[in-house]
Structures are given as structure tokens and as C-alpha cells.
Amino acid sequence: MNVLEARSLTGSRGEARLFRDLSFGVAAGEWLAVRGPNGSGKTTLLRCVAGLTRPDAGDVLWNGELITRDRAHFHADLLYAGHLDAIKDDLSAEENLASALALRGVDAGAEAIRAALGEAGLDKRRQLPARRLSAGQRRRIGLARLILDPAPLWTLDEPLTALDDAGQRLFAALLARHLARGGVALIATHQALDAPAVRELRMDA
């Protein structure tokens, strides 16, 4: 059973203390919404949980093991997406998606990639250079990635940014699908989702 745990995490940015002694747990089929104003430490928290930033104190565990004990195994189970879309302008939607999956060791195949981009609403734009896509369309490449990446743990920073109503509904459906198969998600978002969170973690400014 997949379980994410944070124990007594303390994090800072420079000299500024963002959070102290923060603990929570998220089990299979659950997601935790991280909410708070800009600068309250949401991104730093997500980066600590993903093993990309070292907390000042405390531990993060995945399935009962410290994530620092076997980073390769943990990162194989982790899909992390920051608040930037991480899209390369010179590559097409297909190429960007294939590249992102390859970096994760996921060999989806051309047909699956095309199908995922179609589900994400990009079938007619899948071969266009990303620079010709709108901000919302670029975000939809990330939605196609969620369709194909089997990682059981999602750590997502503002995934609804630039998405229209249809894109937000698709994300909510993908999240529900992920949770139904036993996935876990930690999501920083200012916006409400159709998939109710198991609870919210409020960050203070």
C-alpha cells in the first residue's frame, strides 16, 4: 500500500524560515491539497518531498523508507511537475512528451503517445513546434504525460495554471483515475478541484 509521510519538516529560503515541524501522511487513493499565499513555502515543501531540496530538519518517507535511502527507487515511483511547464520550444508536442517519458524510463510507444495527446486535446497540434502552442496547450502536454506515466506518487505544483475549464475538468478526471488505482498525490494549488482532497494543508505567509 502506497503511503507518503512527512515527519517534522522544517524548510527555509535563504534566511527566511518558511515552515517548521510540519508533519502529514497521505495514503493510497488520497491526495493532499497544499494551499497558501505566494511566498508561503508551497513550492519549497513540494521540492523537499520530491527530494530536490534538502529540508533544514525532518524526514520524508515513501512506503516506510526514507527517500534518501534509495533515491533511484523513490524517483522511479515519483512524477514531479514544477510550476513551469518545462517544455522545449523547438520540439513538437509529440517530441516533448516522448522526451519527458524517456527521461523517466517510460517507453510508451508512438501510438500511445498520439492517443494521449488526443485525449489531452492536442491531436491536431501534436506535430507543431511548442513555440506555436498557447500556454494552455503547452500545459496539456503535461496532462498527456499524466495519462502515460505509471508513477504511483504525483507531486504537482500549480498544475491548473493556464488551463481552461475543459482542461481543468480533464485534470480532475486524470487525478480521480490515478487515485482509483491506488495512487497518491500532493498538489499545491490556488484553485478548487472537482476531486475533493482528503484534507488541506494550509501554509502561512
Write the layout of secondary structure elements.
Blueprint: E1 3-13, E2 16-27, E3 31-35, H1 42-49, E4 57-62, E5 65-66, H2 71-76, E6 78-81, H3 93-103, H4 110-119, H5 135-148, E7 153-157, H6 165-180, E8 184-188, E9 199-202
Parallel strand pairs: 3-8, 3-9, 6-7, 7-8
Antiparallel strand pairs: 1-2, 1-4, 4-5
Report on the structure:
- The protein folds into two domains: 1-77 and 152-205, Rossmann fold, CATH 3.40.50.300; 87-150, no CATH class.
- It is globular.
- It has a five-stranded parallel sheet, with helices on both faces.
- The protein has six helices and nine strands, in the order βββαββαβαααβαββ.
- Helix 3 crosses helix 5 (135-148), helix 4 packs across helix 5 and helix 5 (135-148) runs parallel beside helix 6.
- The chain has 205 residues and is α/β, with parallel strands linked by helices.
- The model has no long low-confidence stretch (mean pLDDT 94).
State the helicity in percent bands: 25-40%
- Based on DSSP secondary structure assignment, what is the total number of beta strands? 9
Tell me the radius of gyration.
Answer: 17 Å
> How many domain modules?
2
Mean pLDDT metric = 94
Strand content: 25-35%
CATH fold field value of the largest domain? Rossmann fold
Largest sheet: 5 strands, parallel
What would CATH call the class of the largest domain? Alpha Beta
Structural class: alpha/beta
Number of helices: 6
Q: Note the gap between the termini.
A: 34 Å
Outline of the structure:
The protein is built from six helices and nine strands.
